[in-house]
Design a protein that fits this description.
With about 600 residues, this protein is an alpha+beta fold. The chain has two domains: about 5-430, Ammonium transporter fold; about 480-595, 2-Layer Sandwich (Alpha-Beta Plaits), CATH 3.30.70. It contains 19 helices and twelve strands. The protein has helices at about 5-15, 20-40, 50-75, 90-95, 100-120, 125-150, 170-190, 220-240, 245-275, 280-295, 300-325, 335-355, 380-410, 420-425, 425-430, 445-455, 480, 495-505, 555-565; strands spanning about 80, 85, 195, 210, 360, 370, 485-490, 515-520, 530, 535, 540-550, 575-580. The strands form five sheets. The protein has a four-stranded antiparallel sheet with strand order 8-11-7-12, covered by helices on one side. Strands 1-2 form a two-stranded antiparallel sheet.
Length: about 600
């Protein structure tokens, strides 16, 4: 194929307005779904709707303010020595000539920065306060620091013979999101029940904390789905700005290697440390590897990507546990460790592992301005020093802005919901949502339905609307009073339920009440870890089976249950026997012995 045609095809696909550039940006937008699933799965069900709303509003609110102000601050002409872009109205006045591709690209990255904080501050933040935060970070905080590197600002200038590198946002997006998460979670305080004082009572005061409790998320599969979505979309996140097929392929490989290595590193580390591989932490390990390689994905080789992921996988575990158990800052999803700690590490790693495969060229002559080699590839300390300088400046800007913003919110509209709102769930109080899961929504009373819809209820055969009471109870027969009735409660392993049901059915017991419960015996269960925190040992999944018998002897029920459940090992269960004073069949009004017999 003619070189001219190849060049034109490359420009069509890979230029700053090319097809792949925009497809990559669309993939970055879809990361909102990944973040929403991760945060929802790793938190409790009573706050699922609130999490979804925050992730949705991050993008929608961010779009408005980015159009009005943020795009100008990021993409506008340099002012104040490259510290900020000059806001302009080009998005409104220059429809034909405006750089819409770059605008959309920066818009979706801006929304990603904002949404990182949602998980760290989950389950106790006022929705209004979060919306205000989202507006501010999208309008001012992110656009200004992103301008320094991606908008032609001061960090795009040569310093000590090298240039600052953050190809896809380890520092500009992830570290900024992680720092914002830490400050927000610190000023907000932990979830109720997360930390206990010396007497074992819940406390919100960090200085009083003596014990740390694990609060597992409600849906690990949803959280895992979010991680897979994020990994898939990360190929657009890291690869969108590549300049050709070769560089795109290289970026996809380094991204994959770092993510895979981070995943394995976390799994092995938690396996050795806690005796079992931690599922939720391993999912975080995948994201940690992705975050860490984001800055240098176009500048490192496979070996560099391997070591970046290897360190990221261990770092995320250590950071989660230090933040949770030592600093006592409550981060339900690990956003501070994943994005903050590994965004920092990934940006530093460029100064160590950059190979020079993506040198800085003169735009006019094509001459090499800087080979961009890191310390381990013969470049000395220059690049590492410039990376550290950029990190310090970006972090300082973020810290000042976020402390000011969250303190202002805390002392005006308030950051935290009330005690009762947190206990009952933000879905109920912030959004009027009884449950994000319809099967668990309380069923309204018939009278409430009639009042709400203004229609009469259907009349049961033989019963008028004015006579909806149950049939009158017949007099209790003396024979019923003389029959002994007993309630047998059986607690056992979930895996033994089918055996127990068949054994009870074989001796004529057909009426069962079965409940999934958590509990333990005198051995206090088995110690397990969730995200590095030892879980309460007295909460193991069990089945509680309740039966009331009169015709079938209690001794037969106990014997059948023991035979079905016995293994000879700790945890076989317990059987409790109670006297029952009376039983009433609601439909007929029969009581005592008669109420327990077959209807026929």
């Amino acid at each position: 194929m003619d070189s001219t045609v190849l060049s034109a095809l490359n420009d069509l696909i890979f230029s700053s307005s090319g097809v792949w550039f925009l497809i990559g940006a669309i993939l970055v937008w879809f990361m909102q779904a990944g973040f929403a699933m991760v945060e929802t799965g790793f938190t409790r069900a009573k706050n699922a709707g609130n999490i979804i709303m925050k992730n949705l509003l991050d993008f929608c609110l961010g779009t408005i303010v980015f159009i009005l102000l943020g795009a100008g601050l990021l993409m506008g002409e340099d002012a104040l020595f490259g510290l900020v872009g000059i806001p302009n109205m080009g998005v409104f006045t220059d429809f034909a000539g405006y750089d819409w591709s770059t605008f959309f690209f920066n818009l979706v990255f801006c929304a990603t920065t904002a949404t990182i904080v949602s998980g760290a501050m989950a389950e106790r933040t006022k929705f209004l306060s979060y919306c205000i935060y989202s507006l501010v970070i999208s309008a001012v905080v992110y656009p200004i620091e992103a301008h320094w590197v991606w908008g032609g600002g001061w960090l795009t200038q040569e310093i000590a013979g090298v240039f600052y590198v953050d190809f896809a946002g380890s520092s500009l997006i992830h570290m900024v999101g992680g720092i914002s998460s830490f400050i927000g979670a610190l000023l907000l305080g932990p979830r109720r029940g997360k930390y206990l004082d010396k007497d074992g009572n819940p406390t919100l005061v960090r200085k009083q904390v003596k014990y740390v409790r694990a609060i597992p998320g409600h849906n690990l599969t949803v959280g895992a789905l979010g991680c897979f979505i994020l990994w898939f979309c990360w190929y657009g996140f890291n690869g969108a700005a590549t300049s050709g097929m070769t560089q795109l392929a290289q970026v996809l490989v380094t991204t994959t290697v770092a993510a895979a290595t981070g995943t394995i590193s976390t799994m092995v580390f938690t396996w050795v440390k806690n005796k079992k591989p931690d599922v939720s932490m391993t999912l975080n390990g995948s994201l940690a590897g992705l975050v860490a390689v984001t800055a240098g994905c176009a500048n490192v080789d496979v070996v560099g990507a391997f070591f970046i992921g290897l360190v990221a996988g261990v770092l995320v575990v250590v950071a989660v546990e230090v933040i949770d158990k030592k600093v006592h800052v409550d981060d339900p999803v690990g956003a501070i460790a994943v994005h903050g700690a590994n965004g920092l590490w990934g940006t530093i790693a460029v100064g160590l592992f950059s190979t020079g495969i993506n040198p800085v060229l003169d735009a006019e002559t094509g001459a090499v301005l800087s080979e961009q080699k890191g310390l381990f590839y013969g470049g000395g300390f220059n690049m590492l020093g410039v990376q550290l300088l950029g990190i310090v400046c970006i972090a300082a800007w973020t810290i000042v802005c976020m402390i000011g913003l969250f303190q202002l919110l805390k002392h005006t509209v308030g950051l935290r919901v009330s005690r009762i709102e947190e206990i009952e769930g933000l879905d109920k109080h912030e959004h009027g949502l009884p449950s994000a899961y319809a099967d668990f929504t309380p069923v309204p009373l018939a009278a409430e339905i009639i009042e709400a819809e203004g229609v009469p209820a259907a009349e049961p055969a033989g019963v008028t609307v004015t006579d909806m009471s149950a049939p009158a109870m017949p007099a209790v027969a003396e024979s019923a009073e003389s029959v002994k009735m007993s309630k047998v409660v059986i607690l056992t392993k979930q895996s033994k339920f089918e055996d127990l049901k068949q054994a009870l059915n074989a001796i004529g017991v057909t009426g069962l009440t079965v409940t999934q419960v958590l509990g333990c015996g005198v051995q206090k269960g088995a110690g397990e870890y969730y995200r590095g925190v030892k879980m309460d040992m007295d909460l193991l999944p069990k089945v509680k089976v309740e039966v009331v018998v009169s015709k079938v002897p209690v001794a037969d029920v106990v014997a059948a249950a023991r035979k079905a459940l016995y293994t000879g090992h700790i945890g076989d269960g317990k059987i409790f026997v109670y006297d029952v004073e009376d039983v009433v069949r609601v439909r007929t009004g029969e009581s005592g012995y008669d109420a327990l017999q077959d209807a026929e």
